[in-house]
Design brief:
mainly alpha
Amino acid sequence: MEYSYAELADRLLIYGEAGGSERGAERLYVERFPERHQPSHAIIARIHARHHESGSVQRFVDAGQPFAVRTAEFEEAVLHHVEDNSSTSVRAIASAMGAAPCTV
């Protein structure tokens, strides 16, 4: 189930209010937001862990492509691809370089 950013943030804040207790946060969330879908203590623990590890409460979907770091060398390689074939597309360059199109 996908949750809104506000719901995820509320769960993390209530986890803090509950002193870091997942079960305490579960109870507080039910009291404060009875109209919302009620998370289990395990969901609250995962939200906290995700925030601790990534700095975000939202999940990142792995598209299967590794992230390419945009370095000067990477940018030079992109420019060489364009010089060699000026009618090429961003997708074709990304595919040839093993990068996501948004990094080209």
